[in-house]
Amino acid sequence: MLNIMDRFEPKASPNNSRYVPLTQQPSCCVPTCIQMVMYKEGIPLVPAEEIGYHMGLVVLPEKGELFFKPHTAEEAPPTGYGIQKMPDAAFEALGIPLTCNVRPIKEFSTPAELLSELMKIEASNGNALLCFNYGGLIGDCLKDWGHNCVFDRVIDGQIRMIDPSPQQPKWRMVPVVKMFNGMKRRGVKIAAGIWILERKRS
Fold first, then answer.
1. CA 154 – CA 141 distance, rounded (Å)
2. How many domains, the chain?
3. Parallel, antiparallel, or unpaired: how do β-strands 71-72 and 58-59 relate?
4. pLDDT digit string (tens) for 45-94?
5. With 60 as the cut, is the pLDDT of residue 2 above it?
6. pLDDT tens per residue across span 93-135
7. What pLDDT, on a 0 to 100 scale, did the predictor assign at position 161?
8. Domain holding 88: CATH number?
9. Which of 189, 186, 165 is nearest to 25 (CA)?
10. Would you say residue 160 lies in a domain?
11. Neighbours of 85 (CB within 10 A)
12. pLDDT above 70 (res 8)
């Protein structure tokens, strides 16, 4: 039986996290990241699958049974499985009061510049998603797919991000050089870089 004093044990999550982590369905990293931002901003949540649907989410046929109304394809689209449109398509369709402004990786000449921009976002309590190539992040050329995580904080010169993947820890510490390389590998044509999410002004 749980002892009442167990409530006062050290937390299993960081005391200074800006987000409550959520876990994604396959190929739903972006919609799930958007949900985390919505929750932080006090915006009523809608299902990640619904956000994904309005972003043109495409999944493998064998994963289709996990969704209510999936788009499936035997061959991956040019940008890979997952979303095929930027978040504003879903924001408009679903009345979500957010906008997405992409700061492509080509705007940052060095990892230090990327880190500086993230520190500014944190200082203003802003919201940002990080779009990168997963294999480029971890140095494995065989894992050639895109991924998005929520930027949380800069700690000791490293990026702490919240990863919606069920196979990864929710709070991940990543050296900025690795993130820079992962973004570079993902490429500008697929909107690699920082996706800044802001509330619409009424």
1. 26
2. 1
3. parallel
4. 999 999 999 999 899 999 999 989 888 999 888 888 888 899 999 999 99
5. no
6. 999 999 999 999 999 999 999 999 999 999 999 999 999 988 7
7. 97
8. 3.90.70.10
9. 165
10. yes
11. 15
12. no
Q: How far apart are CA 57 and CA 67, in angstroms?
A: 11
Distances (CA, A) of 162 to 21, 37, 68, 124, 147: 7, 11, 26, 18, 12
Distances (CA, A) of 184 to 42, 96, 145: 33, 30, 13
| Domain that residue 66 falls in | 24-199
- Report whether 33 contacts 194 (CB < 8 A): no
Distance of CA 43 to the CA centre of its chain: 17
| CA dihedral sign, ordered 5, 6, 10, 14 | negative
Q: What letter would DSSP give residue 82?
A: B
Residue 25: count of CB within 10 angstroms of its CB: 20
Mean pLDDT, the chain, rounded, equals 91
Q: Mean pLDDT throughout 24-48? A: 96
Answer whether residue 5 is part of any domain: no
Is 16 contained in some domain?
no
Helices marked H in 41-100 — which ranges?
48-54, 87-94
CB 67 within 8 A of CB 49: yes
Two tokens, residue 188: 């500008």
Q: By three-state DSSP, how is residue 18 classified?
A: coil
